[in-house]
Amino acid sequence: MDFELSEENRIFREAIRNFATKEIAPLVDESEETGNFPTQLFRMMGEQGFLCPRYPLELGGGGGDKITDCIMVEELTRISAGICSGILVQSGLATQPIYKYGSEEQKKRFLVPAIRGEKIGAFGLTEPDSGSDAASIKTRAVKDGDGYILNGTKIFITNGPICDYVVAVAYTDPSKRGVGINLFIVEKGTPGFSVARKLHKVGNWAAETGELIFEDCRVPAENMIGEREGGGFEQIADTLISGRITYGARCTGTAQAAYELTMKYAAERIQFGQPIIKYQNTKFKLAEIATNIEIMRTFTYRIAWEYDQGRNVRKEAAMVKLFSAETLQKILSDTMQIHGGYGYMMEYPIQRFWRDGRLFTITEGTSEIQRLVIAKEIGC
Ligand SMILES: Cc1cc2nc3c(=O)[nH]c(=O)nc-3n(C[C@H](O)[C@H](O)[C@H](O)COP(=O)(O)OP(=O)(O)OC[C@H]3O[C@@H](n4cnc5c(N)ncnc54)[C@H](O)[C@@H]3O)c2cc1C
Fold first, then answer.
1. pLDDT tens digits for 29-72?
2. Does residue 251 surpass a pLDDT of 90?
3. DSSP conformation class of 273
4. Nearest atom (ligand 1) to Cα of 367
5. Which residues contact 104 (CB under 8 A, 6 or more apart)?
6. Dmax over Cα atoms in the chain, in whole Å?
7. How far is the CA of 362 from the centre of ligand 1 (A)?
8. Burial letters for 230-239: b for 16+ Cβ neighbours within 10 Å, e otherwise?
């Protein structure tokens, strides 16, 4: 057994950590205040192979693996979960279906520019009345000559307000519930495609999240991902497995940031004549947090490694997401508690991680949905 990161992975971790500290950290406050994503990051990261590090070099990626992807997400989330949201949609949900199932033409027109940061991608599955029950989506794609006419509404779409294209999920055959689904690449500027509104969120303010509308939106047939009608279900399932592993890294990065802030605060805050870190209650909480971060990180990277070996990790990916997101909630609550009243003030950074991390039991499959997936996989 070898739990060491490879030489390449270690070099990558150092490089992305330096980049995040020097180039991303100074952008966080303004981005959080304005709610505008610093879109220049897409090109900056794309040029250095940081944006989509696991795609092959010949496509403009970093030539890495799923572990590299997790390292990127962990390091970025340590600085800003909101900024990382926009980046990880680009490196995962908005590109993986094209990378794995797209035509050569789609790769040339959308994937390569997305990997280089020249085009911003989004992924639209969720609808106002269809979240966990994704098979109940109402968006329809009706064949019309050499194209499809899309009608429907997508909500909570990360990068939606700033995207150049969205990978939108629609029924081509609604009589086949859950199966008659396809993914379509819809470009900004296509008549009938619009951003209805940008949404205001509890956290992850730096990420732009929106509601998208397709109204008699005509999409050329060559923008459908995959060769046959009804192939979308498998594409979504595959994309979500990868995303759930990345989620472990997202939770680990958030937990690490909250832990570091709290170690520092607890060492500096004096009450009853000594730093609060001296009290057993604080020490025990921090010891438990440090332990849980190790478990989250080890579990995430082990399953990323298994994914890289081409193994079926449907169950394990759901376990990574469930365990990491739920454990993170306790960590965030404890780190906030150790900060006392100052932690509840907006001028202290712990509140940002506390708000941002609250999201993680909800998106890309709630904790309840992960439990359902795991229960099914273990034969319940
Ligand atoms: C900030 C943000 C960004 C997002 N980004 C994207 C994006 O880029 N693209 C995209 O497509 N979507 C995105 N989403 C949507 C996200 O994936 C959904 O919010 C999530 O899947 C849950 O769906 P829902 O919000 O409709 O909740 P619901 O499905 O309505 O669930 C509400 C509650 O009921 C529970 N529940 C539902 N069904 C069951 C069941 N069978 N058994 C037990 N409990 C159940 C849920 O676990 C949850 O606690 C985003 C959401 C947010 C908040």
1. 999 999 999 999 999 999 999 999 999 999 999 999 999 999 99
2. yes
3. T
4. 47
5. none
6. 79
7. 6
8. ebbbebbeeb
Overall pTM surpassing 0.90 (yes/no)? yes
Question: Does ligand 1 lie within 6 Å of residue 363's CB atom?
Answer: yes
Q: Which two tokens stand for residue 331?
A: 């960590």
Cβ(153) – ligand 1 distance below 6 Å: no
pLDDT at 164 exceeding the cut of 80: yes
CB of 361 within 6 A of ligand 1: the answer is no
368 lines ligand 1 (CB under 6 A): yes
Q: Which residues pair with 217 in a beta bridge?
A: 150
Sorted by sequence, the CB contacts under 8 Å of residue 352 that are 6+ apart come out as: 32, 80, 203
Label residue 2 by pLDDT band (50, 70, 90). confident
The finding on whether 126 has its CB within 6 A of some atom of ligand 1 is yes
d(C-alpha 238, C-alpha 177), whole Å: 18
Lookup result for tokens 């932690």: 343
Say how many residues make up the chain: 380
The answer to whether 183 and 230 are in contact (CB under 8 A) is: no
Question: Which pair of structure tokens corresponds to residue 245?
Answer: 């592993």
Question: What amino acid occupies position 203?
Answer: G
What domains are there in the chain, each with its CATH number?
A: 7-115 (1.10.540.10), 121-230 (2.40.110.10), 233-377 (1.20.140.10)
* 349 CB neighbour count, 10 Å cutoff: 16
Nearest residue (by CA) to ligand 1, atom 44, is: 368
**Closest residue (by CA) to atom 24 of ligand 1?**
131
Residues taking part in catalysis: 364
Which mutation among 363, 372, 376, 380 tests ligand 1's pocket best, with the greatest number of atoms within 8 A of CB? Answer: 363
> CA-CA distance, 17 to 71, in Å (whole number)?
9
pLDDT confidence tier of residue 152, bands split at 50, 70 and 90: very high
In angstroms, rounded to a whole number, what is the distance separating the alpha carbons of residues 368 and 349?
A: 29
From the CA of 160, give the closest atom in ligand 1: 8
Could you tell me if the CB of 113 is within 6 A of ligand 1?
no
